[in-house]
Amino acid sequence: MITRPPAEIGMPVEEIDTPALLLDLEAFERNLQRMASAIADTPIRLRPHAKTHKCPVIALRQIAHGAVGVCCQKVSEAEAMVYGGVTDVLISNEVVGTPKLHRLASLARQARVMVCVDDPGNITDLNEVALAYKIRLSVLVEVNVGANRCGVEPGEPVLQLVQHITQLPGLRFAGLQAYHGAAQHIRDFVQRLEAIQSAVEKVDHTLDLLQRHGFSCPIISGGGTGTYRFEAESQVYTELQAGSYIFMDMDYSRNLDVEGKPWQDFEQSLFVYTTVMSRPTPDRAVVDAGLKALSVDAGMPGVYQREDLEYVRASDEHGKLVVHDPDCTLRVGDKIRLIPGHCDPTVNLYDWYIGIRGDRVEAIWPITARGAVL
Fold first, then answer.
1. Among the residues of 74-216, which ranges form H helices?
2. 13-20+265-366 CATH
3. Structurally, what CATH architecture does the domain formed by 39-248 represent?
4. Which residues of the chain have pLDDT under 50?
5. Mind listing the pLDDT tens digit for each residue in 9-30?
6. pLDDT of residue 3
7. 34-77 confidence digits (pLDDT tens)
8. b vs e for 88-120, b when ≥16 Cβ sit within 10 Å of the residue's Cβ?
9. Cβ-based neighbour number of residue 276 at 10 Å
10. Cα separation of 348 and 371, whole Å?
11. Are strands 319-323 and 309-314 parallel, antiparallel or unpaired?
12. CA–centroid distance for 77 within its chain
């Protein structure tokens, strides 16, 4: 069931019902521009990950800032993007199972849709459904460049899959998926850089092998918010899949820059707005944002611009705060902003973005792909 929005256009921020997912539009817009400016003088193109925001309205704003399209992880996410007006989607994941393959092929008749592969049998299945729908489906071979998740090993295993793809009339080899997700949250700058340098070497080796066998590789897609500059400067990657840069979260705030200071390329624009529902003791308060309002897989949320408050535990409907200042005047009914520990799964808990500018609600955007797990 889609819930009703917790706000109305023009409403003062303090009147927004809670818990609510707030988007500071000014910070969000600056993040869009910062990424566009950061890669403007590089050959890389931005294909931001829609699994972060799950919202075609945001995807179209990213495209307006120069993105070539978006990435998705699920067919259902891709459907939400295409039906919302996005015409170029990479499903940066493997799609397996008859129902999903038919939906993928149908969607590829309506927009440019690409998909990743790492298995010969899956490649054969994709070819069969592509022929049934009279399309030629573009596929990227996923290479394991260090994340040790999906993907075949660099070099010969990639070549074997490419040879298989190019023998099938329903498929087109479009390039490589080379995303190193684990590198995004390596805290130390040098170690983060070294992880991407290793990935680049693996891609380089694979490209050399493919070229020697006569295969061109138009797309090398990967990179994320934590390492985007490294991929952009690599001269190897052609597409950048950063997603969280538009919002940020507590997990990314723990990354360090080259000087060992907190990494601050982008601003925090996404917040969970919450109300104090209890202040039973001077050193404890409880808010109405718990596990059903925010994700804690990457740790507890932060309390925005309140060093005197610390969010320490989440229950289903309650968030426990420790009050460090004995003179704190926090009262029942007061509202505060929380910084999500991990933005992607937190967004997936909400139906609406409440876009604010200054002290007023300016926009209410549907999170169309919420719960899109199929």
1. 75-83, 98-107, 120-132, 156-166, 189-212
2. 2.40.37.20
3. Alpha-Beta Barrel (3.20)
4. none
5. 999 999 999 999 999 999 999 9
6. 87
7. 999 999 999 999 999 999 999 999 999 999 999 999 999 999 99
8. bbbbbbbbeeeebbebbbebbeebebbbbbbee
9. 20
10. 6
11. antiparallel
12. 12
